[in-house]
Amino acid sequence: DGGITQSPKYLFRKEGQNVTLSCEQNLNHDAMYWYRQDPGQGLRLIYYSQIVNDFQKGDIAEGYSVSREKKESFPLTVTSAQKNPTAFYLCASKQGGGEQTQYFGPGTRLLVL
Amino acid sequence: QQQVKQSPQSLIVQKGGISIINCAYENTAFDYFPWYQQFPGKGPALLIAIRPDVSEKKEGRFTISFNKSAKQFSLHIMDSQPGDSATYFCAAGPYDYKLSFGAGTTVTVRA
Questions:
Q1: Sign of the CA dihedral B79, B83, B89, B92?
Q2: What is the pLDDT of residues A9-61, one digit of tens each?
Q3: Which residues of chain A neighbour B2 with C-beta distances below 8 Å?
Q4: What is the CA radius of gyration of chain B?
Q5: Fewest CB atoms less than 10 Å from the CB: which of A57, B50, B76, B106?
Q6: Is the CB of residue B41 less than 8 Å away from at least one CB of chain A?
Q7: To probe the interface with A, which of B1, B3, B90, B99 has the most A CB atoms within 10 Å?
Q8: Do A105 and B103 touch (CB under 8 A)?
Q9: Is B61:B47 a contact under the CB 8 Å cutoff?
């Protein structure tokens, strides 16, 4: 089955700890995205990547970092600098060549201990 | 600064009724307007999308109406069913890689 997988489903972070959220896609999509979802605020863009080894900051990049070493993988690290990390994190991907539809993974819920 | 404003925040409709969700945007460079449906604990899934060259698009019980001059678009869910109970997001984007999302509308369909 083609699709986007995110792991883990739930993640717990201690104060001062960095944690990494995994996102993998086997759709051969060029672009990948990370969004943060909070109640009543919709989806806010953290980072996105249009091609391998290149990525851009979204609207709320502070306290987060990403890498895009492989086309199918786009991990997100929530650093200790992110003071309010509790949220639902969604990864998405999109085909290139003018296609605009983004496809979402099942999400990771991050909680702070 | 939210580029897409969505209303209402929530609505309750009886089974068989019509649900209407409205969105407004400011950026005239936007030319792609999708709607996503999200169930609790799941990722959003594309429901229906429209380009500004048409004023209406229908897929089954779901219809998008688009008013380019007013910079508004809306989702109508006809004959609402309990299985339609979900959160709906509108979004808008220019012809590049970024979408701006509305805040979402939680729809509850009562049997």
A1: negative
A2: 999 998 889 999 999 999 999 999 999 999 877 899 999 999 999 999 999 99
A3: 42
A4: 13
A5: A57
A6: yes
A7: B99
A8: no
A9: no
Class of residue B9 by CB neighbours under 10 A (exposed 0-12, middle 13-18, buried 19+)? exposed
| Identity of residue A106 | P
Answer yes or no: are the C-beta atoms of B88 and B35 closer than 8 Å.
yes
For residue B63, pLDDT over 80 is answered with yes
Strand pairing report for B33-38 and B45-50: antiparallel
Does the beta carbon of B40 lie under 8 angstroms from any beta carbon of chain A? no
How far, CA to CA in Å, does A93 sit from each of A49, A75, A96?
Answer: 9, 13, 10
Q: Note the pLDDT tens digit of each residue in B41-60.
A: 999 999 999 988 899 999 99
Cα gap B68→B36, rounded to integer Å: 20
E strands within chain A? 4-7, 10-13, 19-25, 31-37, 43-51, 54-57, 64-66, 76-78, 87-94, 103-104, 108-112
- Smallest Cβ–Cβ distance between B46 and the set A35, A48, A101 belongs to A101
Contacts across the A-B interface (CB distance below 8 Å): 53
Tokens representing B77 are 């869910």
- Is residue B44 a contact partner of residue A104, using CB atoms and an 8 Å limit? yes
Bridge partners, B25 (sequence order): B4
First vs last C-alpha separation in chain A: 35
